[in-house]
Design a protein that fits this description.
homodimer; Arc Repressor Mutant, subunit A; 77% helix; DNA-binding
DNA sequence: CTTTGCATTAACAAAATTGTTAGACATAAT
DNA sequence: ATTATGTCTAACAATTTTGTTAATGCAAAG
């Protein structure tokens, strides 16, 4: 019977594997290390998942689903006015990355080393993203024609938002030591960083 | 004697190792694969560099030096007016990343898996960066006091610039398939992306 | 032409990592 | 009580990857 207080060995292994793969990547991860972190013998790991590869697939599947799911929320509520919608999208995206700080590097490294696996995720996102881009671009073009905002390519805007929201987390260990007191209070920093990213994008769009 | 047309085995190995390590990371790299890419037996690799670790050190050293050297150029010419200086710094940084597109991911992964090695690079950059930040901040504060530009924390600006310039290259395989025609002509895309990044930062600083 | 020293290879050895198996053990069904 | 089933372990096996060595070649110095 499923007990919430006593996770099964299988769940323990999955949790340990997730952390190991996300921090060290496929090549850096060790099945023995995963097993011992999960508190089981490494034969156990092979018993449940047969191979390292299959265990990895489980993690990749789940993480790709997480990303895919997040993309749907990030695009913002179409009923909001465009400025509000973009602002809300940025904040949702930022919060998602903040809660999954290891994910971007993992996904990127994974896609680079095994591009074929990305096709599944890409296919799932492709038409959705294209549609949202198109509707956002139409709305932007309309507002721009009225002189209310700058005319801008939504794809460029998208790249900018992704860059601003993601890079801090990916490069955290690189920049943190260079930042002095700025990043010592993590909560404080993240909140002002989020506001900054919104500000940057709003200013980019606002008519001058 | 050193011949420019016939690189030595040692140089061949170093070149192959650089590519292997930059694309696959330390864990993913194989000494046999490096050797065969260099067209030598793998015993040869061990003859010249003894261990994978030592070969890797050579590459890391060189790449960290490259980054360190780049940082000095990126901070811009102090004799220029602040706007020009920042614009020029952004462009220099962008061009550097464009010419070393594999470097950011390598450096980040390397720092995450072996933070102790970063201390050498960090120490070299620390005081320089702090000084440049301070002089830039002073200049910004002066201009802001005159109402010419927005008051802004240079460190925040620095993170924004790094993010915008770097993320595209790090996440290239992730975003490229989502971008339709935008990125098909790479040269064209990079040039407009560079201009966009400058535009974004300038708008962030300009007084509204 | 012989010695010296570095470059090179092939074959081998060691280590690390992944994967398997036979059997033990518990638990629940028959 | 016996059987069946899934869980688990310890020991072992296979594979992959790294590292070594002894022997060979080769070119320059003496």
């Amino acid at each position: 019977m499923e007990n919430k207080e006593q996770p099964s060995k299988e769940q323990l292994i999955l949790a340990a594997a997730e952390y190991e793969f996300l921090t060290k990547g496929y090549d850096g991860a060790r099945t023995t290390s995963i097993a011992s972190a999960a508190g089981v013998t490494h034969a156990m790991l092979h018993y449940y998942f047969r191979t390292k590869e299959q265990l990895f697939e489980r993690i990749v599947d789940e993480k790709f689903r997480t990303v895919s799911h997040a993309m749907f929320n990030i695009m913002g509520d179409p009923s909001l006015p465009i400025m509000e919608r973009i602002k809300c999208g940025i904040e949702t995206h930022f919060d998602f990355i903040a809660q999954n700080p290891l994910l971007p590097r993992f996904v990127i490294n994974e896609i680079i080393t095994r591009p074929e696996r990305y096709e599944v995720l890409h296919k799932r996102l492709e038409s959705f993203v294209k549609n949202v881009f198109k509707s956002l671009q139409d709305e932007i073009d309309q507002e721009a024609a009225l002189g209310k905002i700058e005319k801008i390519d939504i794809k460029m805007l998208f790249i900018s938002i992704m860059s601003l929201n993601t890079f801090t987390f990916v490069a955290y260990p690189f920049i943190e030591p260079l930042m002095g007191e700025l990043m010592v209070d993590r909560e404080q920093f993240l909140s002002s960083r989020k506001a900054e990213n919104v500000e940057i994008i709003i200013r980019r769009i606002k008519k001058q």
